[in-house]
Amino acid sequence: MEVNPQKQRTGLSRLFHAFGYSLSGLRAAWFEKAFRQEAIAALVLVPSAFWLGSTWLEIAMLVSVVFLVMIIELLNTGIESAIDRIGPEWHELAKRAKDIGSAAVLMSLVLCLGVWFGALWTHVIAS
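and the corresponding structure tokens:
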């Protein structure tokens, strides 16, 4: 007997339910301060990409790195939630997993800042 009824669904029913689970995940992530800050920044940065980018490739890169930060934040939050589900006590492996997830977010933020700085430098500052 399957524990998860989602595994038995097929076709459009499975897609419909999967979409609902994804929306639930986004709603849950909204209550995480870091994700909320990144989502609000995305509301400014994504439209700005259309102003700043000269080609569709530049626009795609500017938008992609913003979404990459949010995607990695979602994965980091999932890791932290799974670790916290196991137990509240301190453990070296739990700390390591959380620290690595945090490092991934940091690296995505550095990448995002680098790409945006490069685009600003090329199109605004150096012009």
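(Above: one complete record from the training split.) The two ends are 65 Å apart (CA to CA).
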